[in-house]
C-alpha cells in the first residue's frame, strides 16, 4: 500500500501518478511494466516515486485494491436492492463490471491483470488478502443474504457457495479478454452458469 507521503500529496499530483501507472499497466502486464515509464509520464523524479511506493508491485496492487473496494460496495448495494437474492445480485454486479471495463484504458489494464492472473491478483480483487479481511468482508455480505431462498442451513455453506460463484465469475472474465467476447455474449454465458448453480444439475 502507498506510504503516507503519497496521501499527503495534492490531489492533482496523486491523480497524475495514478494515471501514469494505469497507462503503463494497460500497456503491458505487471511483470513487464517499467517504473521509468511511470515516472516519465507523471513527470516526477525516480526518488520521489520511492517516497510514495515501495516498487511497481506496490502501486499495481493499490490500483486493484481501490477497484476492489468499489466492487465490494457496489455488490452490497445491489444485494440490498435485490432483497438478499444472491444469483441476480451476482449477475447484475457482473454486468456492471463489464460496463466499467468498456473504457479503453480500464479494459487493457484488466485484460493484462486477468490474462496474467495469479493468487495474489485474484485475492486482491476478491478482497480476501488475509483471513481476517476475508472473514470480516464475508460477514458483511452474509448478513444481507436472504438465506430462506437457499438450500443451505449454515453460513459456512454460504461461504462455499460464494467461493464457487466467485471462481465462475473469474473464469468468465478471463474468457471476455481471451476470446474477446461482447458484453451480450459474456452476460449470456455467465447467466447460464449461475442458473445451473441455482437449479443444480441433478433431477429432483
Can you summarize this structure?
The protein has helices at 4-7, 11-27, 35-42, 46-52, 56-81, 86-100, 104-114, 119-125, 131-142, 155-178, 183-199.
Give a structural overview.
By secondary structure, this protein is mainly alpha-helical. It is 73% helix and 0% strand. It contains eleven helices and no strands. The longest helix is centred in the middle third of the chain and has 26 residues. It is elongated and about 65 Å long. About 3% of the residues have low confidence.
Please supply descriptive tags for the structure shown above:
mainly alpha, 204 residues, 0% strand
Residue share in helices? over 70%
Query: Could you report the average pLDDT, rounded to the nearest whole number?
Result: 90
What Rg do the Cα atoms give? Answer: 19 Å
Largest sheet: none
- Please trace the helix and strand order, writing H or E for each element: HHHHHHHHHHH
Number of strands: 0
**Total helical elements:** 11
Strand % is: under 5%
**Which class best fits the helix and strand makeup?**
mainly alpha
- Overall, the morphology is elongated
End-to-end separation: 49 Å
Low-confidence stretches are 128-133
Map the helices and strands:
Blueprint: H1 4-7, H2 11-27, H3 35-42, H4 46-52, H5 56-81, H6 86-100, H7 104-114, H8 119-125, H9 131-142, H10 155-178, H11 183-199
Helix pairs in contact: 2-3, 2-7, 5-6, 6-11, 10-11
Amino acid at each position: 500500500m502507498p506510504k503516507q507521503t503519497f496521501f499527503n500529496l495534492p490531489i492533482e499530483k496523486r491523480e497524475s501518478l495514478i494515471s501514469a501507472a494505469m497507462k503503463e499497466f494497460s500497456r503491458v502486464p505487471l511483470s513487464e511494466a517499467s517504473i521509468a515509464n511511470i515516472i516519465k509520464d507523471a513527470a516526477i523524479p525516480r526518488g520521489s516515486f520511492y517516497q510514495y511506493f515501495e516498487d511497481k508491485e506496490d502501486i499495481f496492487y493499490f490500483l486493484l485494491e481501490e477497484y476492489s473496494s468499489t466492487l465490494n460496495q457496489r455488490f452490497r448495494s445491489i444485494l440490498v436492492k435485490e432483497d438478499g437474492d444472491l444469483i441476480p445480485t451476482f449477475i447484475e454486479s457482473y454486468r456492471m463490471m463489464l460496463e466499467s471495463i468498456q473504457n479503453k484504458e480500464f479494459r487493457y489494464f484488466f485484460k493484462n491483470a486477468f490474462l496474467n492472473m495469479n493468487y495474489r491478483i485474484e485475492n486482491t480483487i476478491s478482497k480476501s488478502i488475509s483471513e481476517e479481511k476475508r472473514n470480516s468482508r464475508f460477514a458483511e455480505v452474509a448478513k444481507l443474504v436472504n438465506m430462506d431462498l437457499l438450500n443451505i442451513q449454515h453460513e459456512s455453506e454460504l461461504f462455499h457457495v460464494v467461493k464457487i460463484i466467485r471462481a465462475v465469475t473469474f473464469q468468465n472474465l478471463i474468457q471476455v479478454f481471451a476470446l474477446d467476447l461482447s458484453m451480450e455474449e459474456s452476460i449470456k454465458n455467465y447467466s447460464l452458469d449461475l442458473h445451473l448453480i441455482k437449479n443444480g444439475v441433478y433431477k429432483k
